[in-house]
Amino acid sequence: MSGSANLPKTSVDPDPARTLDAHFYTDPSIFKAEQSGLFARTWQYAGHVSQVVNPGDYFTFEIAGQGLFCICGRDHKIRTFYNVCQHRAHELVQGDGNCKLLVCPYHAWTYELTGSLRSGPNVRSVPGFDRSTICLTEVRTEVLCGFIFINLDDDADDMSVWYPGVEDELRAFVPNIDQLQPLEWIEILEHCNWKVSVENYSECYHCQLNHPTFAKGVVKPETYDIQPKGHCLRHTTECQNLDRMSYSIDTNANAHAADYSSWFLWPTFSFQVYPGNVLNTYLWRPLDVDHVTVWRGWYTPDGVDNEAIRRLAVQDRATTVEEDIHLVESVQRGLRSKGYRPGPLVVDPRHGVNSEHSLLALHQWMRRALQA
Predict the structure, then answer these.
(1) pTM, 2 dp
(2) Which of 164, 187, 267, 333 is most deeply packed, by most CB within 10 A?
(3) Are residues 249 and 340 in the same domain?
């Protein structure tokens, strides 16, 4: 009898989970569908409350090809509107600033900060004109720990349904989050599809080989894990031994001072807390099928300059961020190779750092978005 007969039997999955087909990342029609569908039906980061502190403060931005602006009302409520006059479709505001009323530059139709029409030259001469029926088109807006998010889908579930537990967890990891303001934003252009960049962020299978500073001087990779919850991927790990940390922290400052955690909010934003309760963020702004701008945000109380945070931002940009640029751009080139076939994902039932189970959730969300 062969000795192999005494070996334990193992089950072999004849059809293991595989990566998405290359056209998901290279086909312009897929990107167009994402612009009109996915990005228009999901929660998207707009800005920070520190940008709209006083009544009349506003800033403009674009989501899913739509011009929008956030503005602080006299009631201190933050509202978001499509940036278009209801008269002849001229854009209402540019850039950022402050205004007592919203006055269209084209014909001086004037709106309250709540979006309702106040007046327009000679409109009373129009028989039956009822200004109470005219209002700027408002957009769903929520504020999460000082971060403003919008959703172009009026029927979308609240953020608490999309990302359950995130606000409470963020407040536990960053006790002073309500006092934080942006210190700096770092803009990085990546020559790849936005999903390639998001997937790279959403697994640490590559970390020990490609991110020596992060893996040896920030976290303990052997404790790294990622778990999906709602439409959030939650990363957790412990900080590296203090004698190996690349920056100083006080592990006794609070319950989570020695922890690293990340909350990736599908599809294009992530809160990240480095050991020492250092808040930083990722924002993906897809440009076209082959390009995405990644914005890295760093925060301090009241936005006051902090040399230690700036040094950490410089370290991050020179190491992890730079290393990832080369990885994702190589992947994008590889996706255009005629020799590429979707490979099997390494899905470990025990999860952990050397597993790609988190990509299964991402791919499921991606497929559903395109089907919708």
Answers:
(1) 0.92
(2) 267
(3) yes
